[in-house]
Amino acid sequence: MNLDQIINAFAKLGLFLSQFTTDDFQKKENIEHNDLFFDGFKHQIKLAQEHNGWFTPKNLQFTFNSWSKSLTDTNLKSWLNSYAINQVKPKKVAIIMAGNIPLVGFHDFLSVLISGHDVLVKQSSNDKHLLPFLAKYLEYVAPDFKGKIEFTQEKLQNFDAVIATGSDNTARYFEYYFKDKPSIIRKNRNSVAILTGNETEEELTALSEDIFRYYGLGCRNVSKLFVPKGYDFDAFFKAMYAWNPIINENKYANNYDYNKAVYLMSEFAMLENGFLMIKEDTSFASPIATVFYEYYNTKEELTTYLNTHSNNIQCIVSNGFTENEIPFGKTQRPELSDYADGEDTISFLLKI
């Protein structure tokens, strides 16, 4: 397959996904193979929700909407414009995927196939229903994909390179196990927001999306705030209020109650508003329903600190603080060129 054919196939997949971005799925005309796949994907969505309680309709719709907007002919060509894709000799690339948010490994899957390689996918048990079905759709719109996409739950064998995502503990295992293969090994990372006290109401409201989307389970979710000495959290809590219905969702509420009880029994100081707790803590990773915060004295001091801990940070949300910052409300709306851990996946795939 040449690059134009692959781009065309993924653009058709984007059109297919655009039907599943609202509560009432809208079957559209002129979507290839829709009679065969539309009802089938509705069933896979139902299975995904039943299997993983964090995969709510709203979060699944958000995922499908994001990918339907990214997977356009224009976006894909713009992303790949600076790469020499057609010069690749196909290899088999294994991907070990996480399952914390829906289709979290799709960018790696896309990158491997669009760079001309074959893909061997080992999914997380938490997210196993959606991607195989979408892969089958790709094989129908572009039959040359058949034989290039493989899923397995067994031990990985017969591959040339690997992209693996896991915890810090599993990363050590991956690094040892795959030491003889070209690899990208991803570890735990979290995202932070830097506040100055001068944020507008709109910026803080947008920040709530960075905190609560996917219940804060993604590495691009903000789990830590850096605030100046004497920061008044009233405006912050006011801006979070639109998300208060989240406390009515059982899995979130159970985590909120549990973590609140732990903090109270341990006599930790914290602030809360009935559905979100904030606690002063030096850690980057906060539990569900909790955001940690830490005070800073000067911009220079904080910049040095963040540079020192860059391996722990996925995104920095701020306004005018740093060169590579993410605007408020945009952490879960990455561009195709926003690579996890800042490591260019396509460049890696073109060198193996």
From TrEMBL:
It comes from the Bacteria. The keyword NADP applies. Keywords: NADP. Pfam families: LuxC. SUPFAM superfamilies: ALDH-like (SSF53720). InterPro entries: Ald_DH/histidinol_DH, CoA_reduct_LuxC. The keyword NADP applies. This is Acyl-CoA reductase. It comes from Lacinutrix gracilariae. The lineage of its organism: Bacteria, Pseudomonadati, Bacteroidota, Flavobacteriia, Flavobacteriales.
